[in-house]
Specification:
Elements: H1 14-79, E1 88-93, E2 99-102, E3 112-114, E4 117-123, E5 130-140, E6 144-151, H2 153-203, H3 219-268, H4 272-303, E7 312-315, H5 316-333, E8 337-342, E9 347-350, H6 352-369, E10 375-383, E11 386-393, H7 425-435, E12 439-444, E13 449-454, H8 457-461
Parallel strand pairs: 8-10
Antiparallel strand pairs: 1-2, 1-6, 3-4, 4-5, 5-6, 7-9, 10-11, 11-13, 12-13
Length: about 475
């Protein structure tokens, strides 16, 4: 891939192209505005000039009709005095076009005729260049010819001024557009280059390097901040993956070693009973590993959003009632009493199967780890309009310093090492909570532990009742 030289790279930037586009659009707007101004102004000036000439011609023909040739000559002489003539043109001739009076020395050479109107060049006394004039030609009784018009040099100068202003405006607009595009492109290119350099450092292995964030809080700063958050999450996920891989290898090494030893014993033993016992123990180890893998798959599917498409109105009270019926005998076998407290239906948007599994994990943990306790309470209610469900026990609980850590995969505290399990129960609960947008909290039950899932009250209020509760 060929890279353009750094001084010329700004020409290929989107910012510079946009600046040129906007400059072109603005030039087009200026051109259209000046064209409209030029057209309307020239039409208005031409119309006013023609109206003035026609009115003047009417006055002079009336003077000829009332006072004859002498009266007309006197009127023209009065109009051609040096202090009154202005840019008006007057000429009275006889039938041979010989001048009788006026401020034009000879009958002009007609360039263009439009009915009574004629256009012709005229040279003003004291000026070397000829100007265009436009006048009305009328033939009077007695075959006299009267020419009344105006010199159009002022209009021509005005048109020339407008055209020059248009040219300068377009030139200045293009200059400012290109200059502004250059400045903007260099600034944008510098900031994008900083992000590119940071990305290159990260790709070279500096995974802790982050994008530069300025103090302007503009789009680039927000982009850099979002990229940094994404990198933090990626680094966290990579760390979690390494931890999970290490924990899987550590937790599966022992059962695999035991399985291999027992199978070797079974192969070497001649006693069928001992072989059967070894195979049964190996099968139990395989079941434990399958349980671990199934739990990992459930967590991975939940974190990937599997089950989001199956979201529907779910009554937490109904789910808690079903789970309590299922686990009540198990709690009694462990010497504990399972109690259910509900305050009526609590509807949330959720996946009933995942919510059921999360609640069973919480109750199963309470039954296994709340040794010395006598009571497990499952409570369904609401707080500040937010539906919530909690599982509380009166066992030894979890130290506050370890409550965040036990939500990670394969984390088992020293006190629970002797009980069956794989350290994935609370990880699945945390994944289900994230999928449902619920807040998961572990609190001191004084004594024991209280785990609470608190759901979004806004989403809950917008839901219809579930089909089973309707």
């Amino acid at each position: 891939m060929t890279v353009a030289p750094r001084p010329l790279r700004f020409f290929a930037t989107t910012t510079f192209r946009l600046a040129l586009l906007y400059a072109g659009l603005f030039c087009t707007s200026v051109l259209a505005l000046f064209a409209f101004l030029y057209w309307t102004t020239t039409v208005l000036v031409d119309r006013q000039r023609e109206q003035a000439v026609v009115a003047d011609m009417t006055t002079l023909t009336d003077a000829f009709a009332e006072q004859g040739l002498n009266g007309l000559s006197d009127a023209i002489d009065a109009r051609t005095e040096p202090d009154r003539v202005g840019n008006n043109i007057y000429l009275l001739t006889d039938r041979t076009l010989a001048p009788v009076t006026g401020n034009v020395s000879a009958w002009p050479r007609v360039v263009k005729r439009d009915g009574p109107w004629i256009s012709f060049p005229i040279t003003i006394e004291g000026e070397a260049m000829a100007h265009q004039a436009r006048a009305v030609h009328v033939v009077l009784p007695g075959d006299y010819h009267l020419l009344v018009g105006q010199d159009t040099r002022i209009e021509q100068q005005f048109r020339s001024t407008i055209i020059q202003a248009l040219g300068w405006s377009i030139a200045i607009t293009l200059l400012l557009g290109i200059g502004g595009g250059f400045v903007m492109s260099r600034n944008m290119l510098r900031r994008i280059e900083a992000i590119n350099q940071a990305a290159e450092r990260i790709m070279r292995g500096e995974v802790r390097h982050r994008m530069p964030v300025g103090d302007s809080h503009d789009e680039f700063d927000r982009l850099a901040a979002n990229l940094n958050q994404m990198l933090e999450e990626i680094e966290h996920l990579m760390g979690s993956m390494r931890t999970v891989t290490h924990n899987i290898a550590h937790d599966l090494r022992s059962p695999l070693t035991h399985m291999r030893s027992r199978l070797e014993i079974a192969l070497a033993a001649g006693d069928p009973q001992r072989q059967r016992e070894a195979i049964e123990q190996a099968t139990a180890d395989a079941d434990q590993m399958l349980t671990t893998f199934n739990a990992l798959l459930s967590i991975a599917d939940t974190e990937a959003g599997a089950g989001r498409s199956d979201m529907e109105p779910v009554d937490l009270a109904a789910v808690a009632h079903d789970v309590a019926d299922l686990y009540e005998p198990l709690a009694e076998d462990g010497g504990m009493r399972l109690e259910l407290a509900t305050s009526g239906p609590q509807i949330v948007a959720g996946n009933r199967h995942l919510l059921f599994q999360a609640l069973t994990n919480l109750i199963d943990n309470a039954v296994k780890h709340a040794r010395g306790g006598h009571r497990i309470e499952v409570a369904v209610g609401s707080a500040d309009g937010a539906p919530q469900i909690s599982v509380a026990d009166d066992g030894p609980g979890i130290p506050e310093a370890d409550r965040a850590r036990v939500l990670e995969r394969f984390v088992r505290l020293d006190a629970s090492r002797t009980t069956p399990g794989n350290g994935l129960g609370l990880s699945l609960v945390a994944a289900v909570a994230r999928l449902h947008g619920a807040a998961l909290s572990l609190d001191d039950n004084r004594p024991g532990l209280r785990v609470t899932l608190r759901f979004d009250p806004v989403r809950a209020r917008a839901l219809p009742p579930p089909a089973e509760a309707a």
